[in-house]
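Exercise 4. Each item below gives a protein and its sequence. For each, produce the structure-token representation.

Item: Zinc ribbon domain-containing protein (Corynebacterium tapiri).
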Amino acid sequence: MHQVKRSEAMPFYEFACPDGHRNERLMSMSAAEREIDCPDCGSRAQRVVSVIGSLPSQPGISAAMDNAARSAHEPAVVNSIPRAGNARPTPVSRNPLHSHLPKP
Ligand SMILES: [Zn+2]
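Answer:
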């Protein structure tokens, strides 16, 4: 009994035999064969290079890629430096009795 791990990628591979039959086989990457017997005529069918990766790029994707490329040498600039720490001054007591207290 041949078992395939669930985590293993199972892409479709397309095979073309000399007679022009096309067959898709779902097989694990590690078990992918270069040739199979054509189920239609029995001759050797060669694996065809997948078309995945040559799909035309979609507008949204290319725009996002342009943005990412531009940000490498044209980063969005901030005009002011954000204030560091607490902007409020520390409250000071005006009571003369407090001046005798130890200072932090
Ligand atoms: Zn065939």
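Check: The beta strands are 12-16, 22-26, 35-37, 44-48.
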